[in-house]
From TrEMBL:
Gene3D superfamilies per record: Class II aldolase/adducin N-terminal domain (3.40.225.10)
A GO cellular component entry from the record: cytosol
UniProt protein name: Class II aldolase family protein
Domain Class II aldolase/adducin N-terminal as annotated: residue spans: 8-185
Pfam family name, one: Aldolase_II
Lineage: Bacteria, Bacillati, Bacillota, Clostridia, Lachnospirales
An example Gene Ontology molecular-function term: aldehyde-lyase activity
Keyword list, A-Z: Lyase, Metal-binding
Top-level taxonomic group: Bacteria
PANTHER family noted in UniProt: 3-OXO-TETRONATE 4-PHOSPHATE DECARBOXYLASE-RELATED, FUCULOSE PHOSPHATE ALDOLASE
Amino acid sequence: MKYERIRKIVLEAIEQAVADGLVHGTSGNIALRDDEEDVVAITPSGISYVGMKPEDIAIVDLNGKWLDGNYKPSSETPMHTAVLRARPDIKATVHTHAMFATIMAMGDNPVLRPITPPQCEFTPVRIVPFTMPGSDEVADKVAEAIGQDGRAVLIKNHGMFTCGKDMKAAMAAATYVEEMAVTTYYAKVAGVYEPMPEEGEAAMKALIAADQAV
Ligand SMILES: [Zn+2]
């Protein structure tokens, strides 16, 4: 099988996302760029992730053209490839409809701020207005909101999108963004919402960046 390594990593990641409750049914999709060739392994469209095999993971080029795989690539491929084209430092991308991230993207002025230190690695979490799923418009808006430094965005009435230098980093972003949304939601319900002070957040970001540079 071609591109077996990246297909297996994508399959393991989507199984983990299902086990962690970040993905339900066939919603959510995960992509990984090959280290040497400009190809991307991505979860297929509309197929249950239960019992999925590596050869079921689709292979596309950086423009989303379907090259290989038993099933056609995710309908949300444009969002993944737009970010991968714009950010050579990014290898892995994750999109989920995780419940609390979706809730926290609503309202007139949604802001997701870190509650605990590890969450600072993934802020600021910018907000993307609603646009049709699978469209080039949503892909462009997600890539624009991620920018040259972003790790995560929320998409209104849809979900979240995260990325990283490898699959572990992209999955950590998805996990911590959902944790940030869960803790924010419950803190607001309990009337004790108090995100980390901005100076603390900046200091943590500097510490994490220095640690990752080693
Ligand atoms: Zn979606």
